[in-house]
Design a protein that fits this description.
Blueprint: E1 3-7, H1 11-19, E2 25-27, H2 41-58, E3 66-77, E4 80-82, H3 88-98, E5 102-112, E6 117-128, H4 133-141, E7 162-166, H5 169-173, H6 177-186
Parallel strand pairs: 1-2, 1-3
Antiparallel strand pairs: 3-4, 3-5, 5-6, 6-7
The chain binds thymidine-5'-triphosphate (TTP).
């Protein structure tokens, strides 16, 4: 039986993958997350998921026995990719953009082995209430925004700002469970007692 490796340092991704009940090992990869010139948001998250998985595969002693899962989540508004905030000012700019509007959360996932790869891209619409400057400032001081794409966590205090979501909640948190299960099925991993046909 092949081994499953999660190439991610995100605690949310580890938690979400754990819920599928398949044994896996997590390892951290360090990759360049810069957007290429002219790259669309869809291509960007798809490429980064693949690069993370490939970087994970390259770290393994016995890659031939393994499948590596990589994932990338980005927030997109007006065609602009919002990554993680690098400062309070950067965070405020993001919140002002998201305030009172609907944006997209894109998550790319890639499952790679030495000879094969499967990929999926999931888009979810998330609507925010209109935010005041004091609200934005209070949220920054919670400490939650720093390690999250778009500067918010729907699963935490950031969920207070979300008025509507259309799509996959787990994808917004970092790993779309349905699509991940489909990819794992293609790689012949069996989920809990036939939960998902393979
Ligand atoms: C929008 C949103 C993002 N996020 C998180 C998911 C991802 O962890 C993070 C986006 O950054 P990513 O670069 O996708 O992931 P990461 O750096 O945390 O982990 P790794 O690359 O090692 O896998 O933002 C939430 O937790 N909740 C949310 O509502």
């Amino acid at each position: 039986m092949a081994k499953l490796i999660l190439a991610s340092q995100s605690p949310r991704r580890r938690e979400l993958l754990t819920t599928l009940g398949i044994d896996f090992t997590a390892l951290a990869t360090d990759i360049d997350e810069s957007v290429l010139s002219g790259e669309t948001p869809n291509r960007y998250v798809d490429r980064l998921a693949l690069v993370k998985a490939q970087a994970g595969l390259a770290l393994l002693d016995r890659p031939a026995d393994c499948w590596v899962l990589g994932s990338d989540t980005s927030v997109v508004i007006d065609g602009q990719i919002l990554g993680k905030p690098t400062s309070k000012e950067h965070f405020q700019t993001m919140m002002r953009l998201l305030s009172g509007r609907t944006h997209q959360v894109l998550t790319g996932i890639a499952l790679v082995s030495v000879g094969d790869s499967y990929r999926a891209l999931v888009t979810t619409d998330v609507s925010f209430m209109a935010l005041s400057e004091p609200q934005i400032s209070a949220y920054w001081h919670s400490g939650e925004p720093l390690d999250k794409a778009g500067g918010y966590g729907i699963q935490g205090l950031g969920g207070v700002f979300v008025t509507k979501i259309a799509g996959s909640y787990s994808s917004v948190v970092g790993l779309p469970l349905h699509e991940t299960a489909l990819l794992l099925g293609k790689a012949r991993f069996s989920l809990y007692q036939g939960l998902m046909p393979i």
